[in-house]
Amino acid sequence: MGAVVPVRCAGPLPAYPGTPNHAPTGPALRLSRMELRAGDSWGIFTFLCAALCNLPALPALNCTEELGAGQSIQKTYDLTRYLEHQLRTLAGTYLNYLGPPFNEPDFNPPRLARAERVPSATVDLDLWRGLTDNARLAANYRAYSRLLCYLRALDGQAGTAELRHRLGHFCSSLQGLVLSIAGVMSSLGYPLPAGPAGPPAPPGTPVAPNDFLKKMDDFWLLKELQTWLWRSAKDFNRLKKKVPPAVVTLRLEARGF
Q1: 35 C-beta neighbours (distance < 10 Å), count
Q2: Contacts of 45 (CB under 8 A, 6+ apart)
């Protein structure tokens, strides 16, 4: 290759810190020297054209983000906390709709046998933590799927437009949580639980014989939801600390100009 004739302009470019009064040189640019006057647009244009023409084939840098389990767990945790906040508002509205004694702060009735159809979160904490991640995720998936069915039944029975709106919005969010948990299990390589989401009601199970027992069923549904969400938030907070966050993968592909 013949010698490259330097391109000279009217004056030098101000020096880079710690370098001589000329542009940096190197084998990639193959320019012996190039001096440009500050503000000289033609000199800058000439410099850029010469640099581009002398560039060798460079690998193209592609940056792709792998949306792994870490990000899926974080989103599920955030959704769980949001549902906790949402439930506080919904519960206050619904318990006021039920009236006393259900809306009284110190009301804490015993759990009736009828309420056993609702998935219970009342499990020994040490026993729960002793389960595998897969077992806890499967239990959360089944419980929220079952709780969602009961909530949708409440939505159809709500007596006011405001309550129906709040219940419908909460059901949509809870459906999103069920799907999000399924996404976490998939990203971790766990299969979704087989079979029904929860134990079906026995055949011929009668509805509540009176209005008070029906309200008790609704009260326990909200109470169990509160406990499940509280515990699930702790589960996903611990799980996201086990799983590394999403990584950024750099892919090099050789491309020529």
Answers
A1: 17
A2: none
